[in-house]
Amino acid sequence: MIAQLLQDKVALVTGANRGIGAAVAKVFAGHGAVVAVNYNRSREPAEQVVSAITTAGGRAIACQADVTDREQVERMVRDIVSTCGRLDVLVNNARPIPMSFTSYLTTDMQEIEARVVAELRAIDACCRSVFPLMKEQGGGRIINVSTIAARQAQAAAMTAAYSVAKAAMEGLSRVIAMEFAPYGIIVNVVAPGLVLTERVKSRRSPEELERLAAGTPLRQLASPEDVAGAILLFALDEARFVTGQYIYASGGTIMS
Asked: Could you list the active site residues?
């Protein structure tokens, strides 16, 4: 029997209707958490994640909000607390703007600015919205999902605007970690490398994926569940003395 590491916890996972977010929701629910599965426009995939969790014996609800809109996020948090009684963990995973695969020289400043602003608004809206509640509860966990492309030039080569936006988010995460720490609110960042989501599989050939996997020390690429496992570490009560930190979930592609 799997240990219930998040028993009686309530977690909000943004952008949880697919990919890494969906995997996090399922892993958290598998460890006993009640999970709020956030989505913006695509309700059906979110309901499918909820159904998968409840079918497996877990507890989950779907909750709609554009995470760049503070009012919508605050409404979502109120609804979660009204339904579940509390909120212990926030995973900021949503991607406010779909990723584009362009180099710096083919990306104009307007796109970079738009992505940076959207990324920061999402983190800001979610963190500010949960802060009063977590403060009153005596603590909480916030895990922000980044990318190794924010720190590795090669990985950022064709994701210029996205990489810049995530680098800005990491800077804001450190500021939030410092200011939230006195209230027992732990803030950390997990940065995946290439993850085998359905979107990635559809864009790259099996041969290319095999070559990329061979270039990692572990000789494999991450599944969404692999990244969810790293995020789980920061959600645990046992991680209460770890804040403002950064974990690469890259199969050893980057070692610090």
From this structure: 162
| Predicted pLDDT of residue 58 | 96
CA distance 119 to 165: 6
pLDDT digits (tens, 9 = 90+) for 173-193: 999 999 999 999 999 999 998
pLDDT at 1 over 60: no
Q: What is the 3-state secondary structure (H, E, C) of the chain?
A: CCCCCCCCCEEEECCCCCHHHHHHHHHHHHCCCEEEEEECCCHHHHHHHHHHHHHCCCEEEEEECCCCCHHHHHHHHHHHHHHHCCCCEEEECCCCCCCCCCCHHHCCHHHHHHHHHHHHHHHHHHHHHHHHHHHHHCCEEEEEECCHHHCCCCCCCCCHHHHHHHHHHHHHHHHHHHHHHHHCEEEEEEEECCECCHHHHHHCCHHHHHHHHHCCCCCCCECHHHHHHHHHHHHCHHHCCCCCCEEEECCCCCCC
Phi, psi of 146, deg, nearest 5? -115, -145
Rg (CA), the chain: 17
pTM above 0.85, yes or no: yes
Tell me, letter by letter, the H, E, C secondary structure of 112-173.
HHHHHHHHHHHHHHHHHHHHHHHHHHCCEEEEEECCHHHCCCCCCCCCHHHHHHHHHHHHHH
Structure token pair of residue 96 = 């406010």
The per-residue pLDDT for 175 is 97
